[in-house]
Task: inverse folding
């Protein structure tokens, strides 16, 4: 059990500090698109090495490449770029709270696309509370930054990342059972990196020089905030239930806010506290609503 909790804590720290590392890299002069390109490139190299060590071989099957390519766009390229752009206008804690909306938005989209996952009353309440929290973040004017914050711009970019990830997850759900998740991950990272590289070439041009600190931050984001949490998450799914593994989702926003305040002198403003409270309560209600059918199904078995 100690190894389980250690894996959850390490994965949460990696994901939770990604925003802080990104803001620090932006302060070092790395541009948003190049930052996404470098991070994804380093990550895909690490994933290829990981797959080679596991002797997984080249991913095969139409479903693997179809789902992996779509998720390369929806769950890597789009969120990396949207998040990097958002962190120019808001703190890491602000974006961490936006990321916490992923299960809520996924539940809302699934209602219209997956017949077996209709919104219950509890899920609807959770979704409304979460969106109410977003409204508070938007309207409060609080971005977590002492000056220069633009919460509406950051919030819209953050929502773009959240909706993209949720849509990609639902697409993958349609093909569940037709592929191995780790195989999809390899295609996902490879195609996402190519997409980001092409967009970066068009928008910002080719590679540019960076400081030593910036390179260290990029390596940290690729390994500690991308690959390691992914590997640990798959390991957790092999040893505990998906519900237990999802506990990281509750910890990540707290880590993002704390790290932003401690490491980057971000502000713990009233709008972020109230908006974050509503979002996390909404996520908790939705998560509990998801658990009940599973518990009943297991009791019947």
Result:
């Amino acid at each position: 059990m100690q190894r389980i909790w250690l894996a959850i804590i390490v994965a949460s720290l990696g994901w939770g500090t990604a925003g802080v590392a990104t803001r620090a890299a932006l302060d070092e002069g790395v541009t948003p698109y190049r930052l996404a390109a470098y991070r994804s490139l380093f990550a895909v190299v690490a994933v290829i090495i990981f797959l080679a060590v596991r002797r997984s071989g080249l991913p095969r099957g139409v479903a693997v490449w179809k789902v992996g390519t779509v998720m390369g766009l929806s769950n890597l390229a789009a969120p990396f770029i949207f998040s990097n752009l958002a962190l120019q206008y808001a703190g890491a804690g602000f974006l961490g709270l936006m990321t916490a909306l992923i299960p809520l938005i996924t539940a809302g989209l699934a209602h219209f696309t997956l017949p077996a996952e209709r919104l219950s009353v509890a899920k609807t309440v959770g979704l409304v509370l979460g969106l109410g929290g977003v409204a508070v973040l938007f309207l409060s004017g609080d971005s977590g930054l002492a000056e220069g914050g633009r919460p509406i711009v950051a919030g819209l970019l953050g929502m773009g990342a959240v909706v993209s990830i949720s849509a990609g997850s639902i697409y993958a759900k349609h093909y569940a059972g037709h592929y191995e998740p780790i195989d999809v991950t390899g295609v996902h990272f490879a195609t996402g990196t190519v997409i980001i590289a092409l967009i970066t070439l068009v928008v910002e041009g080719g590679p540019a020089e960076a400081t030593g600190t910036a390179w260290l931050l990029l390596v940290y984001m690729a390994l500690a905030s991308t690959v390691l949490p992914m590997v640990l998450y798959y390991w957790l799914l092999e040893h505990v239930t998906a519900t237990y593994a999802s506990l990281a989702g509750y910890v990540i926003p707290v880590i993002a806010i704390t790290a932003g305040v401690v490491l980057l002198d971000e502000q713990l403003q009233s709008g972020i506290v109230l908006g974050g409270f509503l979002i996390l309560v909404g996520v908790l209600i939705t998560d509990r609503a998801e658990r009940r059918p599973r518990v009943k199904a297991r009791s019947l078995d």
Observations:
- The CA atoms of residues 26 and 181 lie 32 Å apart.
- Residues 2-300 form one domain.
- The two ends are 26 Å apart (CA to CA).
- The chain has one domain: 2-300.
